[in-house]
Automatic annotation (TrEMBL):
Record's GO cellular component terms: cytosol; mitochondrion
Name the record gives this protein: Class II Histidinyl-tRNA synthetase (HisRS)-like catalytic core domain-containing protein
Upper taxonomic lineage: Eukaryota, Metazoa, Chordata, Craniata, Vertebrata
Stored Pfam families: tRNA-synt_His (PF13393)
Segments forming domain Class II Histidinyl-tRNA synthetase (HisRS)-like catalytic core: 4-157
GO MF entries: histidine-tRNA ligase activity; identical protein binding; RNA binding
Species annotation: Albula goreensis
Positions in coiled-coil regions: none
InterPro entries linked to this entry: aa-tRNA-synth_II/BPL/LPL, HisRS-like_core
Gene3D superfamilies in the record: Bira Bifunctional Protein, Domain 2 (3.30.930.10)
């Protein structure tokens, strides 16, 4: 988890020094998502499609995402409702500890492995003094074709009055994540520029 924490710390330091405005670094783990979808009753063949819906939560309200899951993607309403209970959660190390005691998630080996690593990630980030802008966000579901562990996304947070804000709630500046054996980080501006470390 040290390389994961170091990458998040580097993003934290860069965005702090650029002074672009307030930001958050959202973190999650592919294994937590896999475990969450499994315990909610998502069939294996619909994991990716469910994730693509959850990934829209930074742009759409839950009601619209739920409608897409049920009407367009064929998930059972009760499955979508269970997913909704989880993806509304945000926090830090305390959230990982709480979810490890969750009666459903605690039965998933994948989810427990991801949650234990999330706790460790926050322990290292505390040592790096980089936790005040980092949020464990269960709705973060990016790059599931290649990320296998921790995933993160740095976003500028909205500021000003409603009329002064950009038309989108959060502007994504970069995303990254752990894969088996290597790290990937790419910008999301005009073009994608992968950096392999």
């Amino acid at each position: 988890m040290i390389p994961d924490a170091e990458c998040v710390k580097i993003v934290y330091e860069i965005l702090s020094k650029l002074e672009l405005g307030d930001f958050r670094i959202k973190v999650n783990d592919r294994r937590i998502l896999d475990g969450m979808f499994a315990v909610c009753g998502v069939p294996d063949e619909k994991f990716r499609t469910a994730c693509s819906s959850v990934d829209k939560l930074d742009k759409l309200p839950w009601e619209e995402v739920r409608k897409e899951m049920v009407s367009e993607k064929g998930l059972a309403p009760e499955t979508a409702d269970l997913i909704g209970e989880y993806v509304k959660n945000q926090g830090g190390q305390d959230l990982a500890e709480k979810l490890l005691k969750d009666p459903k998630l605690s039965k998933s080996e994948d989810a427990c492995a991801g949650l234990n690593d999330m706790k460790l990630l926050f322990t290292y980030l505390q040592l790096f003094k980089a936790t005040d802008k980092v949020v464990f966000d269960l709705s973060l579901a990016r790059g599931l074709d290649y990320y296998t562990g921790v995933i993160y996304e740095a976003v500028l947070t909205p500021s000003g009055t409603e009329s002064e804000r950009r038309p989108w709630a959060w502007e994504v500046w970069l995303e990254g994540g752990a894969t088996t054996g290597w790290w990937a980080c790419s910008t999301l501006r005009e073009r994608r520029c992968p950096v392999w470390v």
